[in-house]
Specification:
By secondary structure, this protein is an all-beta fold. It is about 0% helix and about 40% strand. The chain has a domain of about 110 residues. The two termini are about 25 Å apart. About 30% of the residues are buried.
Amino acid sequence: MINPVSKVIGGGTDEFTRPADVTVYTAGDRVSATTSDTATTPLRTLFRATKQGADGIITKLILQTNLATFIDIMRIHLFQVSQPATAIPGDNAAMGVVFANRAEYLGFFDFAALAEPIAISVSDLSQAILSEKKIGFRCKDGDDAIYYALQTTGTGTPASGQQFFLRAETEE
């Protein structure tokens, strides 16, 4: 009898607090915990795989924030490295994807518009789930993590110190 191939179910979470300001985001701005735009500011880790150089599928991404009225469509950019060849800017700066990062860049995916789960006066949660697609990943040789950057696709006014939470579910 042949043993079936087993899947390793995994994933990870990340949470960050954006800077203490209410500067309006415009389309294409980065949403980040820091305003720095130097190469010494690494991207955040979305999840760690079971081994270095692992590949698999992201089966679900969940994005939440603690501001119920923040209803922008967010884009997540995935990378194999925490410090791409060309630095990714910090919070509220225009973020482009550059050709120089092509070897480290896995692609991008758009969440649905953030929305309140239930509209009640005490709600402070907006959420978006990306689960209709299966997103392939491959960790860089010698590394077991996938890194990310969040970007706005429209305009929106953030809260000072607004919090963001991401959860990834994976199969390897």
